[in-house]
């Protein structure tokens, strides 16, 4: 891998391609229905048992105001590492892990979709697709963290 390449995990959400730096990902799990908890933020789908501990599961569809998660047999849960905390995010499918040349990345334009711009690290031009690069570490605000962990 060349020094100007970053290993990215590319996944689907709301019919679009998204990516994140693979360093933010601990593991990709098959989908399992989370246990619903009362009185949690709307984007928290629930919790699952993960390596003898409780893992909060976040619905990016709800977090980004896309509506409900799409039901799909390809759904996965991506386990994200954030300091000592971990959480899972639900994605429609996982496409691939690939090396992306940093020259293909651009900063996100001001009109960037409906997602709050703080989550978007940039846009990647790959073949026929524009892939939205997410900063998964910034998905949860410090207030969100206080409510979840």
From TrEMBL:
GO biological process: chemotaxis; signal transduction
InterPro entries referenced in this protein's UniProt entry, alphabetically: CheW (IPR039315), CheW-like_dom_sf (IPR036061), CheW-lke_dom (IPR002545)
Superkingdom: Bacteria
GO CC annotation, single: cytosol
Start and end residues of each CheW-like domain: 5-145
PROSITE patterns: CHEW
Stated name of the protein: Chemotaxis protein CheW
Record organism: Clostridium chromiireducens
Lineage: Bacteria, Bacillati, Bacillota, Clostridia, Eubacteriales
